[in-house]
Design a protein that fits this description.
Chain lengths: 365, 365
């Protein structure tokens, strides 16, 4: 299994953010993860370092025979410096908890970042597929295939009664968590968001922030995911959440229609101010970036702004995060310094995007 | 005496805002006005309509013999519609109180707007000279000359003991009010402004807002003027206020130096954000315009922004006022509509200014 270098990831944007999937103006990504454990070892929290080393070896060995993982690279967490690890977190490839520590563990990551496997996180294996837009079918096909391939060589802990056994009982059964990253500025502006999210939680789904459990909602981006993993088939879970998400997309589109009808100029003002600030700012926190980019995203979605594409905005959203910023600039920086360089990066990115668009328009004329 | 049309004024910016005078990055304008009354008539508040008609006739007749007023036009207030009157107020050529009513009155206004005379305002005559930058000498020379010319044909109410007699005793003596319009963003940002203004009032000067007495301070623009008109010569009054203003300019420059030294990026951020918003805004109140343009003004003053000249910014400040906006667009508008058209006007003005600069730069290359 070849080694993964973080540098190679930085050369391109995460392909799940390329804004190609269905409804990508509202749904940034669909993600599914499966929790799996090997029957012959205790759960990670109870296993020894030797156990973990063996688990890792077994999984890597099994993976090397999977077609699905032919282009994957292995990121050894014990080897990796903190900044690189944080970059993987910022790209949603590993969890923040997978970070520091010396126990044997690592992540297999496919070159397009659509498929990744954490080994020895909370469970022995955490398989993840992530795709652009509302596209759970594709994510599930990808994941199901690699899961099948791995199960040929790995003996999963499985009970006829409970399904897949997991370190935390809330994951038992299918071991599946489906989540979509959804942008709901319209419902926030019409103040219907609380009611909508209340409905979502009442039917057993969870709502979380940009970086997952316990994190803040930034830039009107919500992660909606299933809570229940037990007593339903994978297809049923996907079907339920798909229906809910489709409904929310409808609510969001209607909220935007209402806003455009009743307060078009106010919406345009909000969007263009945000774009104006991003184009001229000299100090910019992550949090403010998320808030301003939300307005720009809405602008692209509503056809008000065409100075930047959704793909380019998604790319920027990844690049301006603290670890990416520091890696790209090759320097460790305090928050205040990062705000300065983040502002520079945003301005340059927007300027390049505009030039590219202008050139394209010129060539079309 | 030719008639003044407001339309002719709109073709050019008020020349006292052309940013040519000394210290024009901090001092927008120096203004002096003289209150005069004719001896043979009661004050305006006690005179009959016939008296006022005679006063007006006398002043116009005397004015027609003044070299200083050769290019002046007469604006008859009884004839003028409200919007046009408001335009004169916005250009600081007449006072807001001179507005509505049917009593005989009017204003003589020199074509470059540097010299004007209100007839039958609070006093029979209110002579005003206004020039760019810190330039009270020039203003005084202009005003003194026309005052002398008029006094040949008009018998002023004058007492050996009290000097010029005025409707309100606070104006008696010299009848002179000197005021400068000063931009103090540095002292506002360093929070030294209250202390500074306290000092100013303690030595007998007044501080007021953009449109004079009782008006709000907008965009960090302060009007500083003398309070005492009695017991000092005109030259002494000018000398005192000049000294104080020179000191305040020093304070402001030092405040800016401190800010640049200690928080340059924050200042640049503030300035560029304001510029970015003005370039993209879709709804803009007068008040917010003043606040944002203050930051841009500071940017020009500190050499941080060269996308717009001080003259062009001053011009914009006049054009976006409610009456100007409505006159230029040929429509009566509610505040909300004005905010929309003000935003359009600002964006277009800034775009033109940038193009002009770019063309100039290109030609220089």
């Amino acid at each position: 299994m070849k080694e993964l270098t973080v540098k190679s990831l930085l050369d391109s944007a995460s392909s799940w953010l390329d804004a190609t999937g269905p409804e990508n103006d509202i749904i940034l990504s669909s993600r599914i993860r499966l929790a799996r454990n090997m029957a012959q070892y205790p759960f990670v929290s109870r296993s020894t370092t030797d156990d973990m080393a063996e688990i890792l070896e077994n999984v890597l060995s099994a993976s090397s025979h999977c077609h699905s993982l032919a282009t994957a690279g292995f990121a050894d967490m014990t080897d990796m410096d903190e900044l690189d690890r944080k970059i993987l977190v910022e790209r949603h490839l590993i969890s923040p908890d997978f970070g520091s520590g010396t126990w044997p563990r690592g992540a297999l990551i496919k070159d397009d970042e659509k498929l990744s496997i954490m080994i020895n996180e909370e469970d022995h294996l955490r398989l993840q597929a992530i795709v652009s837009g509302l596209n759970m079918g594709t994510a599930w096909n990808t994941l199901s295939r690699v899961d099948d391939e791995l199960s040929v060589r790995l003996k999963y802990a499985f009970s006829e009664k409970y399904g897949y056994l997991t370190a935390c009982p809330t994951n038992a059964g299918t071991g599946m968590r489906v989540s979509v990253l959804i942008h709901l500025p319209g419902l926030v502006l019409t103040k219907d968001i609380d009611e909508t999210l209340k409905g979502v939680t009442q039917i057993g789904l969870s709502v979380r922030g940009f970086y997952g459990e316990g994190t803040e909602v930034l830039g009107n981006l919500f992660q909606i995911s299933n809570h229940t993993t037990l007593g339903k088939t994978e297809e049923e879970i996907i079907e339920t959440i798909s229906q809910v998400i489709t409904q929310i997309i409808g609510f969001e589109r209607r909220a935007c229609e209402t806003l455009l009808k009743e307060a078009r100029t106010h919406i345009e003002d909000k969007i263009w101010r945000a774009y104006g600030i991003l184009n001229h700012v000299r100090l910019l926190t992550s949090k403010e970036f998320m808030s301003l980019s939300s307005a720009v995203r809405l602008g692209i979605s509503l056809g008000i702004i065409d100075n930047i594409t959704m793909k380019s905005l998604n790319q920027l959203m990844v690049l301006v995060q603290p670890a990416h910023l520091q890696k790209l600039l090759g320097a460790t920086m305090e928050a205040g310094e990062r705000d300065f360089f983040r502002a520079n990066m945003v301005r340059e990115h927007l300027m390049k995007t505009r030039r590219k668009r202008d050139t394209k328009k010129k060539n079309e004329d």
